[in-house]
Write a structure and sequence with these properties.
Layout (H helix, E strand, L loop, with lengths): L2 H8 L2 E21 L2 E15 L4 E6 L12 H16 L3 E2 L5 H6 L6 H19 L3 H5 L5 E3 L1 E4 L5 H14 L3 E5 L6 H11 L5 E4 L9 H5 L9 E2 L8 H9 L4 E3 L6 H10 L4 E4 L7 H13 L4 E3 L6 H11 L13 H4 L5 E2 L8 E3 L10 E2 L1 H7 E8 L1 H5 L1
Helix pairs in contact: 2-4, 6-7, 10-11
The chain binds 2-succinylbenzoate (OSB) and magnesium ion (MG).
Length: about 400
């Protein structure tokens, strides 16, 4: 090995510039969860550039409104520009796993804002090393079993129609969003229509309380793989009580914000499955820690989604290649969401599986610059101090 190669291989990661962009991307059809509806995504995309001019794209998964978590695209934009970027820009990291500690020190919350930059650093390291992001994370899977998340509909018939289409398309799991008034009848109708062999689950996004335990218990009749986050968005204790009363496994989404919360879930019996969304938990280092805690306890995990563009999807697919992601992820192909995605190739599903792009370095997809430029409504460039002066 020549000295030049050795030197560049050992060079620390140093982000010199972060460009924030907001794009608007209309969904093919509105997506309704118990706490709100989305018709057009406002997506925060980031471009990270290092001192050698290597560039990668990343995505912040914060939503339009604070109805899933406290963060929104606007709070995330502010947090990245004000606190996250200044901690990362110009700093030297020997490995992307070291970025998290720097972002967590005396800096509470803003997990999605932190995650966007932290995950971008992992992708930058993968791009620099010319390896697929999945490899850098320790991924072992070459394709990810894929599920679809179906929003709340105005009548059971509309949900049945979509569930049948999902079954025909080959999805390995069908998730039904539920809320009081759109639960037992809807799930019953779908189970009846798709038959006993389709893996079905329900996601309530915190729409219930323990007083609804009997109602939720009625769902035990439908052989659901799991019920996701029925109770409070930060609760563990009441979920443990509910789990004792249900046969169906509970899966936690909103309540699991880091590896300590996953440990607490396991200790309390608040759930038996974890949905890991890397944005929700502050990035990849945290996601891997949760993955490992769950794996050691025999708790399966799967990768959730936040209606990401093809950029965010690349990050989810890479994460879901880790071994304990043993249940289908909410990683639907591009065409499920958009008339046209912002990446090439678009994400495709084959026999219910999305392939991990192991033949390409970095995030494995190319951003369609013309399309992104067309969709961009706001842009801000954040530079390291020396670059601002230059
Ligand atoms: O709870 O998993 C959720 C979308 C927005 C907010 C919360 C959730 C979701 C989804 C979307 O279920 C899944 C996907 O991206 O396909
Ligand atoms: Mg959920």
């Amino acid at each position: 090995m020549t000295p030049v190669v050795r030197e560049s291989a050992e060079q620390p990661l140093r982000v010199e510039r972060i460009t924030l962009r907001e794009i608007r991307l209309p969904l093919k059809e509105p997506f309704r969860i118990s706490s709100g509806v989305c018709t057009e995504r406002r997506i925060l995309l980031l471009e990270l550039r290092d001192a050698d001019g290597v560039e990668i794209w990343a995505e912040c998964v914060a939503g339009e409104n604070p109805n899933y978590s406290a963060e929104t695209i606007d709070t995330a934009w502010y947090a990245i520009a004000t606190w996250v970027a200044p901690r990362v820009l110009g700093a030297a990291f020997g490995h992307p796993s070291l970025v998290r500690a720097r972002l967590e020190k005396d800096f509470r919350g803003h997990s999605m804002a932190k995650a966007a930059v932290e995950m971008g650093c992992w992708a930058l390291a993968a791009e620099r090393a010319q390896v697929p992001l999945s490899n850098l994370l320790g991924g072992t899977r070459t394709a990810i079993a894929t599920g679809i998340s179906l929003g709340i509909q105005s009548a059971p018939e509309a949900l049945v129609e979509r569930a049948l289409a999902a079954k025909a398309a080959g999805y390995r799991k069908v998730k039904l969003k539920i809320q009081p008034g759109a639960d037992v009848d809807y799930v019953a109708a779908v189970r009846e229509a798709v038959g006993p062999d389709v893996a079905l689950m329900a996601d309530a996004n915190s729409a219930y309380t323990l007083a609804d335990a009997a109602r939720l218990g009625e769902l035990d009749a439908f052989g659901l793989t799991m019920i996701e986050q029925p109770l409070g968005r930060d609760d563990l204790v009441q979920h443990a009580e509910l789990q004792r009363r249900l046969a169906t496994p509970l899966c936690l989404d909103e309540s699991i914000t880091d590896a300590d919360r996953a440990r607490d879930m396991i200790a309390l019996g608040s759930g038996r499955i974890v949905n890991i969304k890397p944005g929700r938990v502050g990035g990849y280092a945290s996601s891997i820690a949760i993955h490992d805690v769950c794996q050691a306890a025999g708790v399966p995990v799967w990768c959730g989604g936040m209606l990401e563009s093809g950029v965010g999807r690349a990050y989810n697919v890479a994460l879901a290649s880790l071994p304990n992601f043993s249940l289908p992820g909410d990683l639907s192909p591009s065409a499920r969401y958009w008339e046209r995605d912002v990446v090439t190739p678009a994400w495709m599903m084959d026999d219910g599986m999305v392939a991990v792009p192991l033949h390409r370095p970095g995030i494995g997809v190319t951003v369609d610059m013309d399309r992104v430029d067309d969709l961009t409504v706001r842009r801000e460039v954040l530079g390291a101090p020396q670059m601002v002066l230059a």
